[in-house]
Write a structure and sequence with these properties.
Structural class: alpha/beta
Distance between the termini: 23 Å
Number of helices: 3
Strand content: 15-25%
Shape: globular
Strand order of the largest sheet: 2-1-3-4-5-6
Number of strands: 6
Helix content: 25-40%
């Protein structure tokens, strides 16, 4: 799967997700650090990547309706330390059917995963 990591996620996730066979790029790699959310969003969409972020600006499911984009994985942990973020995302990518998540709006918390798909 093609993924884009937002700048608010640990760079160590690149190695972890790549080891699982995913094609991963990051906001810093593309010199988008500090750029507007719109530019980050456009970069993810133009390269057909699922965006992984903690940024609540991407949390409005009405604006980012499933099926209208390449996918969002919004991570919302109670204690989002670098270590905890890596652990939670690694665990999810090990056990969940993430390959079904393109075009979905996914919210991950400490205990839950909500996957919203396009209504048919």
């Amino acid at each position: 799967m093609r993924l884009k990591l937002d700048e608010n996620l640990p760079a160590g996730l690149v190695e972890t997700l790549t080891a699982f066979g995913h094609d991963v790029d990051t906001v810093p790699q593309e010199a988008l650090t500090g750029q507007s959310d719109a530019k980050v969003w456009d970069a993810a969409q133009n390269t057909q990547r699922l965006l992984i972020t903690q940024d609540l600006d991407f949390s409005d499911i009405r604006r980012f309706a499933p099926g209208t984009h390449n996918g969002i994985l919004l991570v919302r942990l109670s204690n989002p330390s670098r270590r905890r973020l890596v652990e939670r995302i690694r665990d999810i990518f090990q056990v969940e059917a993430v390959e079904t998540w393109p075009k979905c709006f996914v919210v991950v918390t400490d205990r839950k995963i909500r996957v919203r798909r396009r209504l048919t």
